[in-house]
Amino acid sequence: MIFEPNNSTDIISLIPLASAGFVFILGIFVFLSNWRATLNRIFFFYSISITIWFFGTYKMFFACENAETAMFWDRFIYIGVIFIPSISYHFSIAFANLRRQRKFVFLGYLISIVFLFFIKNPLFTDKLFVYKWGCHTIAGPLHNVFLVLFFVGIIALFANIYIKIKQAKEKIEKIQARYAFTALLILSFGALGFLPAYKIAIFPIAYFSGLICAIILAYAILRHHLFEIRVIAAELLTFAIWFVLLIRLLLENNWQNRIIDGMLLVLIIFFGLLLIRSVIKEIEQKDNLEKLTLKLEAANERLKQLDEAKSEFLSIASHQLRTPLTTIKGVTSMLLEEFWGKLNE
Protein backbone atom coordinates (compact mmCIF):
# COMPACT_ATOMS: atom_id res chain seq x y z
CA MET A 1 0.00 0.00 0.00
CA ILE A 2 1.37 3.38 -1.01
CA PHE A 3 1.55 6.01 1.72
CA GLU A 4 -0.36 9.13 0.71
CA PRO A 5 -0.25 12.13 3.06
CA ASN A 6 -3.58 13.85 3.75
CA ASN A 7 -5.01 16.39 6.18
CA SER A 8 -5.38 13.85 9.01
CA THR A 9 -1.80 12.72 8.40
CA ASP A 10 -0.59 16.32 8.63
CA ILE A 11 -2.30 16.68 12.02
CA ILE A 12 -0.88 13.36 13.23
CA SER A 13 2.60 14.34 12.01
CA LEU A 14 2.51 17.49 14.16
CA ILE A 15 2.12 15.40 17.31
CA PRO A 16 5.70 14.01 17.30
CA LEU A 17 7.07 17.46 16.41
CA ALA A 18 5.19 19.12 19.27
CA SER A 19 6.21 16.24 21.54
CA ALA A 20 9.85 16.69 20.51
CA GLY A 21 9.71 20.36 21.47
CA PHE A 22 7.93 19.62 24.74
CA VAL A 23 10.36 16.86 25.79
CA PHE A 24 13.38 18.99 24.89
CA ILE A 25 12.07 21.96 26.89
CA LEU A 26 11.28 19.59 29.77
CA GLY A 27 14.83 18.24 29.64
CA ILE A 28 16.29 21.75 29.77
CA PHE A 29 14.03 22.68 32.69
CA VAL A 30 15.02 19.58 34.71
CA PHE A 31 18.70 20.20 33.93
CA LEU A 32 18.58 23.87 34.95
CA SER A 33 16.61 23.10 38.13
CA ASN A 34 19.70 21.29 39.49
CA TRP A 35 22.43 20.61 36.93
CA ARG A 36 24.76 19.21 39.60
CA ALA A 37 22.43 16.26 40.32
CA THR A 38 23.32 13.06 38.46
CA LEU A 39 19.68 12.13 37.83
CA ASN A 40 18.95 15.52 36.29
CA ARG A 41 21.92 15.25 33.93
CA ILE A 42 20.95 11.72 32.87
CA PHE A 43 17.38 12.87 32.26
CA PHE A 44 18.66 15.71 30.07
CA PHE A 45 20.51 13.26 27.80
CA TYR A 46 17.47 11.00 27.85
CA SER A 47 15.32 13.92 26.65
CA ILE A 48 17.79 14.55 23.80
CA SER A 49 17.48 10.91 22.67
CA ILE A 50 13.68 11.12 22.78
CA THR A 51 13.76 14.45 20.92
CA ILE A 52 15.86 12.92 18.12
CA TRP A 53 13.37 10.04 17.93
CA PHE A 54 10.33 12.36 17.76
CA PHE A 55 11.84 14.84 15.32
CA GLY A 56 12.99 12.05 13.00
CA THR A 57 9.50 10.53 13.14
CA TYR A 58 8.02 13.90 12.13
CA LYS A 59 10.39 14.20 9.16
CA MET A 60 9.64 10.64 8.04
CA PHE A 61 5.94 11.41 7.69
CA PHE A 62 6.80 13.61 4.71
CA ALA A 63 9.63 11.52 3.27
CA CYS A 64 7.97 8.18 2.52
CA GLU A 65 7.55 9.02 -1.17
CA ASN A 66 11.33 9.28 -1.51
CA ALA A 67 13.01 6.06 -0.36
CA GLU A 68 16.48 7.58 0.01
CA THR A 69 15.24 10.50 2.14
CA ALA A 70 13.00 8.23 4.21
CA MET A 71 15.88 5.85 4.94
CA PHE A 72 18.06 8.81 5.97
CA TRP A 73 15.52 10.02 8.53
CA ASP A 74 14.82 6.50 9.78
CA ARG A 75 18.53 6.03 10.47
CA PHE A 76 18.56 9.48 12.08
CA ILE A 77 15.86 8.19 14.45
CA TYR A 78 18.11 5.29 15.45
CA ILE A 79 20.79 7.75 16.63
CA GLY A 80 18.46 8.54 19.53
CA VAL A 81 16.74 5.15 19.89
CA ILE A 82 20.02 3.21 20.15
CA PHE A 83 20.96 5.14 23.31
CA ILE A 84 17.56 4.87 25.03
CA PRO A 85 18.20 1.45 26.71
CA SER A 86 21.70 2.44 27.93
CA ILE A 87 20.52 5.83 29.25
CA SER A 88 17.46 4.25 30.88
CA TYR A 89 19.66 1.61 32.52
CA HIS A 90 22.05 4.33 33.71
CA PHE A 91 19.06 6.18 35.17
CA SER A 92 17.98 3.05 37.08
CA ILE A 93 21.51 2.58 38.49
CA ALA A 94 21.72 6.19 39.68
CA PHE A 95 18.15 6.18 40.97
CA ALA A 96 18.57 2.95 42.96
CA ASN A 97 22.16 3.88 43.97
CA LEU A 98 23.51 0.47 42.86
CA ARG A 99 27.26 1.12 42.77
CA ARG A 100 28.17 -2.47 41.96
CA GLN A 101 26.47 -2.20 38.57
CA ARG A 102 28.28 0.94 37.44
CA LYS A 103 30.70 -1.09 35.28
CA PHE A 104 27.70 -2.33 33.28
CA VAL A 105 26.68 1.28 32.59
CA PHE A 106 29.92 1.79 30.68
CA LEU A 107 29.33 -1.49 28.84
CA GLY A 108 25.81 -0.36 27.89
CA TYR A 109 27.06 2.90 26.39
CA LEU A 110 29.86 1.06 24.60
CA ILE A 111 27.35 -1.31 22.97
CA SER A 112 25.21 1.68 21.90
CA ILE A 113 28.23 3.36 20.32
CA VAL A 114 29.14 0.15 18.46
CA PHE A 115 25.62 -0.09 17.01
CA LEU A 116 25.81 3.59 16.12
CA PHE A 117 28.55 2.79 13.59
CA PHE A 118 26.34 0.13 11.97
CA ILE A 119 23.28 2.36 11.42
CA LYS A 120 24.02 2.79 7.71
CA ASN A 121 25.09 -0.83 7.25
CA PRO A 122 22.60 -3.01 5.29
CA LEU A 123 23.08 -5.69 7.95
CA PHE A 124 21.31 -3.37 10.41
CA THR A 125 18.50 -1.97 8.22
CA ASP A 126 17.97 -2.09 4.48
CA LYS A 127 15.27 -1.15 1.97
CA LEU A 128 11.98 0.51 2.86
CA PHE A 129 8.65 -0.87 4.02
CA VAL A 130 5.79 1.51 3.11
CA TYR A 131 2.40 1.02 4.76
CA LYS A 132 -0.83 2.93 5.41
CA TRP A 133 0.43 5.16 8.24
CA GLY A 134 4.00 5.74 7.14
CA CYS A 135 7.19 3.85 6.36
CA HIS A 136 10.13 2.13 8.06
CA THR A 137 13.42 0.56 7.04
CA ILE A 138 13.44 -3.24 7.07
CA ALA A 139 15.39 -4.93 9.87
CA GLY A 140 18.55 -6.90 9.10
CA PRO A 141 20.44 -9.54 11.15
CA LEU A 142 22.24 -6.94 13.32
CA HIS A 143 18.91 -5.31 14.13
CA ASN A 144 17.79 -8.62 15.67
CA VAL A 145 20.89 -8.60 17.91
CA PHE A 146 20.17 -4.98 18.88
CA LEU A 147 16.58 -5.87 19.72
CA VAL A 148 17.70 -8.70 22.04
CA LEU A 149 20.13 -6.37 23.84
CA PHE A 150 17.43 -3.70 23.95
CA PHE A 151 15.09 -6.00 25.88
CA VAL A 152 17.92 -7.25 28.13
CA GLY A 153 18.57 -3.63 29.12
CA ILE A 154 14.86 -2.99 29.69
CA ILE A 155 14.54 -6.06 31.94
CA ALA A 156 17.66 -5.04 33.91
CA LEU A 157 16.39 -1.52 34.56
CA PHE A 158 13.01 -2.87 35.72
CA ALA A 159 14.83 -5.14 38.15
CA ASN A 160 16.84 -2.18 39.51
CA ILE A 161 13.78 0.01 40.02
CA TYR A 162 12.03 -2.90 41.75
CA ILE A 163 15.04 -3.24 44.09
CA LYS A 164 14.75 0.48 44.86
CA ILE A 165 11.05 0.09 45.74
CA LYS A 166 11.82 -2.78 48.13
CA GLN A 167 14.85 -1.15 49.79
CA ALA A 168 13.49 2.40 50.11
CA LYS A 169 12.93 3.33 53.75
CA GLU A 170 11.45 6.79 53.26
CA LYS A 171 7.90 7.10 51.93
CA ILE A 172 8.92 9.74 49.37
CA GLU A 173 11.58 7.39 47.94
CA LYS A 174 9.01 4.63 47.47
CA ILE A 175 6.66 7.04 45.70
CA GLN A 176 9.43 8.25 43.37
CA ALA A 177 10.47 4.66 42.63
CA ARG A 178 6.90 3.71 41.73
CA TYR A 179 6.65 6.71 39.41
CA ALA A 180 9.92 5.69 37.75
CA PHE A 181 8.74 2.08 37.39
CA THR A 182 5.46 3.24 35.82
CA ALA A 183 7.26 5.63 33.46
CA LEU A 184 9.71 3.01 32.24
CA LEU A 185 6.92 0.45 31.88
CA ILE A 186 5.14 2.89 29.57
CA LEU A 187 8.41 3.50 27.71
CA SER A 188 8.70 -0.24 27.03
CA PHE A 189 5.58 0.04 24.85
CA GLY A 190 7.74 2.15 22.54
CA ALA A 191 9.13 -1.18 21.34
CA LEU A 192 5.96 -1.41 19.22
CA GLY A 193 7.73 1.06 16.96
CA PHE A 194 10.03 -1.78 15.87
CA LEU A 195 7.15 -3.80 14.37
CA PRO A 196 7.16 -2.00 10.98
CA ALA A 197 10.85 -2.94 10.72
CA TYR A 198 9.55 -6.53 10.45
CA LYS A 199 6.84 -5.57 7.93
CA ILE A 200 4.08 -5.47 10.54
CA ALA A 201 1.93 -2.40 9.85
CA ILE A 202 0.83 -0.56 13.00
CA PHE A 203 -0.46 2.93 13.74
CA PRO A 204 2.53 5.06 14.90
CA ILE A 205 1.63 5.36 18.57
CA ALA A 206 5.06 4.37 19.91
CA TYR A 207 6.25 7.96 20.36
CA PHE A 208 3.41 8.60 22.84
CA SER A 209 5.20 6.23 25.23
CA GLY A 210 8.35 8.36 25.16
CA LEU A 211 6.38 11.55 25.78
CA ILE A 212 4.40 10.13 28.72
CA CYS A 213 7.53 8.51 30.17
CA ALA A 214 9.44 11.81 30.03
CA ILE A 215 6.64 13.66 31.83
CA ILE A 216 6.35 11.05 34.60
CA LEU A 217 10.12 10.80 35.12
CA ALA A 218 10.44 14.58 35.34
CA TYR A 219 7.65 14.59 37.92
CA ALA A 220 9.41 11.88 39.93
CA ILE A 221 12.73 13.77 39.90
CA LEU A 222 11.15 17.10 40.86
CA ARG A 223 8.53 15.72 43.22
CA HIS A 224 9.92 17.49 46.31
CA HIS A 225 9.20 20.78 44.54
CA LEU A 226 5.75 19.72 43.37
CA PHE A 227 4.51 19.21 46.92
CA GLU A 228 4.15 23.00 47.15
CA ILE A 229 0.94 24.31 45.59
CA ARG A 230 2.65 27.52 44.42
CA VAL A 231 5.27 25.56 42.49
CA ILE A 232 2.56 23.33 41.00
CA ALA A 233 0.67 26.42 39.81
CA ALA A 234 3.82 28.09 38.44
CA GLU A 235 4.99 24.98 36.59
CA LEU A 236 1.60 24.08 35.13
CA LEU A 237 0.97 27.65 33.99
CA THR A 238 4.44 27.91 32.44
CA PHE A 239 4.26 24.53 30.68
CA ALA A 240 0.78 25.34 29.35
CA ILE A 241 1.96 28.65 27.87
CA TRP A 242 5.03 26.99 26.35
CA PHE A 243 2.95 24.24 24.77
CA VAL A 244 0.32 26.65 23.35
CA LEU A 245 3.01 28.90 21.85
CA LEU A 246 4.82 25.89 20.41
CA ILE A 247 1.64 24.62 18.71
CA ARG A 248 0.94 28.15 17.44
CA LEU A 249 4.48 28.31 16.03
CA LEU A 250 4.11 24.95 14.25
CA LEU A 251 0.73 25.78 12.73
CA GLU A 252 1.75 29.26 11.51
CA ASN A 253 2.23 29.39 7.72
CA ASN A 254 3.55 32.95 7.48
CA TRP A 255 7.33 32.98 8.03
CA GLN A 256 7.30 36.51 9.44
CA ASN A 257 4.71 35.55 12.05
CA ARG A 258 6.61 32.31 12.71
CA ILE A 259 9.79 34.27 13.50
CA ILE A 260 7.83 36.57 15.84
CA ASP A 261 6.19 33.56 17.54
CA GLY A 262 9.60 31.87 17.84
CA MET A 263 11.14 34.93 19.52
CA LEU A 264 8.12 35.20 21.81
CA LEU A 265 8.46 31.51 22.74
CA VAL A 266 12.15 31.97 23.62
CA LEU A 267 11.31 34.96 25.84
CA ILE A 268 8.45 33.12 27.54
CA ILE A 269 10.70 30.11 28.18
CA PHE A 270 13.34 32.39 29.73
CA PHE A 271 10.93 34.29 31.98
CA GLY A 272 9.03 31.09 32.78
CA LEU A 273 12.21 29.47 34.08
CA LEU A 274 12.96 32.60 36.12
CA LEU A 275 9.44 32.50 37.59
CA ILE A 276 9.69 28.85 38.61
CA ARG A 277 13.21 29.24 40.02
CA SER A 278 12.14 32.30 42.04
CA VAL A 279 9.16 30.43 43.50
CA ILE A 280 11.35 27.44 44.34
CA LYS A 281 13.97 29.72 45.91
CA GLU A 282 11.33 31.50 47.99
CA ILE A 283 9.98 28.17 49.25
CA GLU A 284 13.51 26.93 50.04
CA GLN A 285 14.17 30.11 52.03
CA LYS A 286 10.89 29.60 53.86
CA ASP A 287 11.84 25.99 54.64
CA ASN A 288 15.28 27.08 55.86
CA LEU A 289 13.67 29.74 58.06
CA GLU A 290 11.30 27.15 59.53
CA LYS A 291 14.23 24.82 60.22
CA LEU A 292 16.16 27.64 61.92
CA THR A 293 13.07 28.49 63.99
CA LEU A 294 12.78 24.87 65.12
CA LYS A 295 16.49 24.82 65.98
CA LEU A 296 16.14 28.05 67.99
CA GLU A 297 13.13 26.64 69.84
CA ALA A 298 15.08 23.47 70.61
CA ALA A 299 18.08 25.52 71.77
CA ASN A 300 15.82 27.71 73.94
CA GLU A 301 14.25 24.62 75.49
CA ARG A 302 17.72 23.23 76.16
CA LEU A 303 18.76 26.50 77.85
CA LYS A 304 15.68 26.30 80.08
CA GLN A 305 16.62 22.75 81.06
CA LEU A 306 20.20 23.85 81.79
CA ASP A 307 18.90 26.78 83.87
CA GLU A 308 16.67 24.45 85.89
CA ALA A 309 19.58 22.03 86.33
CA LYS A 310 21.80 24.92 87.50
CA SER A 311 19.20 26.08 90.03
CA GLU A 312 18.77 22.54 91.32
CA PHE A 313 22.54 22.10 91.58
CA LEU A 314 22.97 25.36 93.50
CA SER A 315 20.12 24.41 95.84
CA ILE A 316 21.67 21.02 96.56
CA ALA A 317 25.17 22.49 96.88
CA SER A 318 24.04 25.23 99.27
CA HIS A 319 22.18 22.66 101.35
CA GLN A 320 25.20 20.38 101.49
CA LEU A 321 27.46 23.27 102.47
CA ARG A 322 25.01 24.71 105.00
CA THR A 323 24.55 21.41 106.89
CA PRO A 324 28.19 20.96 108.10
CA LEU A 325 28.50 24.68 108.91
CA THR A 326 25.37 24.50 111.09
CA THR A 327 26.76 21.43 112.84
CA ILE A 328 30.12 23.10 113.49
CA LYS A 329 28.37 26.24 114.79
CA GLY A 330 26.18 24.20 117.14
CA VAL A 331 29.08 22.16 118.54
CA THR A 332 31.17 25.32 119.02
CA SER A 333 28.30 27.00 120.87
CA MET A 334 27.87 23.99 123.15
CA LEU A 335 31.60 23.96 123.92
CA LEU A 336 31.59 27.65 124.76
CA GLU A 337 28.59 27.18 127.04
CA GLU A 338 30.49 24.29 128.71
CA PHE A 339 27.64 21.93 127.91
CA TRP A 340 29.97 18.97 128.40
CA GLY A 341 31.80 20.55 131.28
CA LYS A 342 34.65 22.98 131.68
CA LEU A 343 37.22 22.79 128.95
CA ASN A 344 40.78 22.01 129.93
CA GLU A 345 43.49 24.32 128.79
UniProtKB/TrEMBL annotation:
A single GO molecular function term of this UniProt record: phosphorelay sensor kinase activity
Broadest EC class? transferase
Q: Which InterPro entries match?
A: HisK_dim/P_dom, HisK_dim/P_sf, HisKA_7TM, Sensor_HK_Regulatory
Q: Name one Pfam family in it.
A: HisKA
UniProt entry keywords in alphabetical sequence: Coiled coil, Kinase, Membrane, Transferase, Transmembrane, Transmembrane helix, Two-component regulatory system
Query: Where exactly are the transmembrane stretches of this chain?
Result: 12-32, 39-56, 76-97, 104-124, 144-163, 175-195, 201-222, 229-251, 263-280
The name on file for this protein is histidine kinase
